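Lecture notes, unit on binding sites. The following record was shown on slide 14. It pairs a sequence with HDE.
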Amino acid sequence: MADPKQEQRDRFRAEDPASGPMTTDQGVPVDHTDDSLQAGERGPTLMEDFHFREKITRFDHERIPERVVHARGAGAYGYFQPYRSCAEFTRAAFLQDPSVKTPVFVRFSTVQGPRGSADTVRDVRGFATKFYTSEGNYDLVGNNFPVFFIQDGIKFPDFVHAVKPEPHNDIPTGASAHDTLWDFVSLQPETLHTIMWLMSDRAIPRSYRMMQGFGVHTFRFVNAQGQGTFVKFHWKPKLGVHSLVWDEAQEAQGRDPDFNRRDLWDTIEAGAYPEWELGVQLVPESDEHEFDFDLLDATKIIPEEQVPVEPIGRMVLNRNPDNFFAETEQVAFHTANVVPGIDFTNDPLLQARNFSYLDTQLIRLGGPNFAQIPVNRPVAPVRNHQRDGYHQGEIHRGANYHPNSLGGGCPALADPDDPAFRHYTERVDGRKIRRRSPSFEDHYTQAALFWHSMADWEQKHIVEAFRFELGKVGAKEVRARTVEQLSYVDHALAVAVAEGIGVPAPQERPNTPQPTPSPALSFENNRGDGSISTRQIAVLVSDGVDAAQTIAVRDALTEQGAIVELLAPQDGTVQDKDGSTLAVDRALPTVASVLYDAVLLPPGGLDSGNAAADDAALRFVRSAYRHGKPIGALGASVDKLADQLPGELRTASDGDATVSEVGIVTDRLSAGTTAQDFTGAFAEAVAAHRHWNRPALPG
Ligand code: HDE
């Protein structure tokens, strides 16, 4: 089926550079662009060199302001398709017909760092989707956390100033571990629930393709009868939710600052299209006050156990942009880009966003005509009397006012029976006051809900993250005040953090919340479909490797969708044990264990005869071990691996493949088994992603 957005992009593509010679911006052919026009060979450059001046001026003006938050991102095109009609709840055109695919553009981002910062920082990730629907653009501008740090948008500049690099020295880049953020947090307990998410592994996603997305606010669906239903939006990744480990994330910042963007780009290029399911939590308006929190409070979730998430459609990203600046940088999202059938609520954070996003595009994109930029253009027709301004790219004709008779009254207004956006007729009355509703007062129950819903290893990572972050805070009183706040969430948490950062343990609070855990919040219950699709597996080879077994295991894993790379001490080929050659994908020194999800040691793979090379390979394995990654070993490599492991794990088995509970799969291939028998067990360990119950490495 034709994709209207891609057809539209075709119309806006620049002239094919192969269609003729180079020209100036005025279309004048150019035959020399390497030397400026000078008075004599060693003389000054002449003002009349219009080609030089145009080229330099255009270069001088290439930059636009980066986004004030979410500056660093990566985007892709794709489509959304509903599973069924949602007419019962909403009249949104793109949620009616399961045979209709609506084009989308999605931009993922970090929040704190500038455009050139690293991907794998501890931070919230933006997950913004523009649906090019037949009734206009709908933007779902969400994050990978379901909650936000503040309740009212008027606090956004304070929060962002606190988390951004400190004003005197512009440090730290892409990090929240500094005094001003924690000063703010310790004084502003409404941040605590989202801070718990930020200290969890959710804040260091393995891949943009492996994180959930959330609309955060409660929105409103409106059906054709004008009836409203509260709705929360959830994106669930088909591959499950997976994260990095903090130590690994930090190393990846140096090894590959583009870790997440490269992953998105490469998998789309390879045809392994990322996919999410869109789910909704629906709450009838009559139940608005049935919760022990306020639906308008963006620091709260509705636990999935209380209101289940109903899947309503799926999104597939299948096309990389042609030009980063034109598309990913210039895409302009706006929470107020809604379509008939989707409306707002009075969430004060959402109300503020509805002002901010248009305002910010005016400065960032230099004027009011940014909706004409190809990535922002609706595929629905645009007709109105908005005119002129910077960067006007359209030639409007006819009357530019309403009502008019000279232009035939055009464009006519939609008839009452035609589709048009009609604001939900919510009844509103009240006094003008600056006051937070008492229903927004409880800041601790859901922070505790998150904490108590975590598996042991998740809690351990959260404590370590608090210790790291607060350990970087210079002001001891800020550390102590934050721990004090944590004591209202959970005493054990506060004590564990205090111990690591050298502040006194806070006293126990009599009534810390004890909410019923929500299993849906744990990574343990978001593992996806158990596939190993797109997991990156490193196979360490060297001269003397058993090529047949290596190829067998590589092919079996590739067949299951994994991306398997053969790494050797140097690029090119290695000699098989029988003298034939095996092609290598990369040289070990150009990569690192942190760039892979698992490591495999085929028979003879660690016998290069070069002690330094073998040592580098073993360091790779040890790093994978420390980061909980699955490790497989075959044949003689089993003993080499065993030598590296803690004593209690050294008893690698003979015979059939064994999955140790700690994600180490070994097979000596001594009882007639083949490498292929082993791959099932190894794939299972890879699907589990990380294995936390490992004893520490010796040495
Ligand atoms: Fe944003 N936010 N935000 N935000 N936000 C921006 O808009 C703002 C909030 C989110 O890939 C800015 O175009 C205010 C919540 C994403 O282009 C700006 C408030 C959520 C993106 C802005 C919030 C988000 C932005 C900066 C509090 C999750 C990146 C550049 C009232 C639901 C979009 C821009 C992209 C970007 C303002 C809070 C998500 C300044 C005032 C809550 C994913 O307009």
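Take-home: Residues 36 and 52 are 6 Å apart (CA to CA).
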